[in-house]
Amino acid sequence: MTTPNDAYVGIDVGKTWLDVALWGNNAVWRVSNDDEGVAEIMARVAALGLQLIAVEATGGYEQLVVQTMLLNSLPVAVVNPTRVRALSKATGKLAKTDVIDARLIAEYAFKIQPEALAPKEAQEIRLNALVTRREQLVEMRTAEQNRLGTAHNSMQVDIREHIEWMNARIQELEVEINGLVDSLPEWRKQAERLDSIPGVGKITAVTVLAEMPELGQLNRQKIAALAGLAPFNRDSGQKRGKRRIFGGRKGIRRVLYMACLSATKCNPVIRSLYLRLTKKGKLFKVAITACMRKMLTIMNAMTRDQVNWRPPEPIPN
User: Fold this and answer.
1) How far is CA 142 from CA 146, 159, 167, 189, in A?
2) Is 12 within 8 Å of 22 (Cβ atoms)?
3) Please, what is the average pLDDT of the chain?
4) Which of the listed residues 144, 155, 192, 224 has the most CB atoms within 10 Å of its CB?
5) Which SS3 state, helix, strand or coil, does residue 106 take?
6) Alpha-carbon gap, residue 77 to 190, rounded angstroms
7) 105: β partners
8) How far does CA 20 lie from the centroid of its chain?
9) Gyration radius from the chain CA atoms
10) Considering the entire predicted model, what is its pTM?
């Protein structure tokens, strides 16, 4: 039985409801996924000596409860539902309901103990929301631009108007992001540091910082894996498959891709790597992915060491 001094809480998230379970306790309660329901959760867990609150990642429906807990400095981790189900299968728990899922998430929190998110101030949460919304609009704009080439003539004007609206809205968001970053001294300092890398702009720097708070805290292998830029082996017996990247944070990869397109022309380190790989006959996709991984490694080292970009020393003749 969990005691008030070592409480692990699991929250199964739905669009309308939140199911909450306490590890070692059969009780599960349900609240609405809104301000009132989250306030009820806060009131009920306030008396516990919380070790960790694990919240299922659901593509956005968990944001309200997670952000509220971060603002109140509670230890909260957002967990991958696939990993929770893997634990349930490993322990022979194959049934699935919201109540069972809440208990499984609490068990996952207790047994795996994923790392809690760092506490965030309200402005930082707002900044993350702005960056996320900008990424969503950029993705939608790309989809509309792709549709434009195959759309019927009668629809092309409508698509162009939508693209123009998204262009304007993205610019507005970028102005708001820049203003908010300037009001947060630590964010401004970190963004300026990454912005010093040739090929990296301020929005790229802020996006990387917002979507990868682990930057500077992990080694280069782990940081590349988080971004989905680490090639994984696909070998079996005598077969040697191609190394491929998968998973990770696509928002990070998108901004690094755009930055590296520029960096291959103006950044001596990235340009040298790109030319070396293409001369070896590597495909563009392979070469640019290696450049993205290299740039992220540079960002990670600069953040860890708290230093700005320094151009490489010239090789003596």
Assistant:
1) 6, 11, 11, 31
2) no
3) 87
4) 224
5) helix
6) 24
7) none
8) 24
9) 23
10) 0.70
The amino acid present at 267, given as its one-letter code, is: N
CA distance 300 to 142: 28
The token pair at 166 is: 């998204």
> Residue 156: helix, strand or coil by DSSP?
helix
> How many Cβ atoms are within 10 Å of 41's Cβ, its own excluded?
20
β-pair partners for 236: 239
Is 171 inside a domain boundary?
Answer: yes
pLDDT of residue 235: 45
Identify the H or E element spanning 264: helix 250-266
- Are 231 and 260 in a shared domain? yes
227, 252 contact by CB (below 8 A): yes
Q: Which residue stretches of the chain are H helix?
A: 35-45, 63-71, 81-90, 98-112, 122-148, 153-182, 185-195, 202-211, 220-227, 250-266, 268-279, 284-305
Judge if 107 and 13 occupy the same domain. yes
Task: Give 146-192 pLDDT, tens digit per residue.
Answer: 999 899 999 999 999 999 999 999 999 999 999 999 999 999 999 99
Residue position matching structure tokens 């890398």? 197
Pairing of strands 235-236, 239-240: antiparallel
Residue 203 CA to residue 209 CA, distance in Å, equals: 10
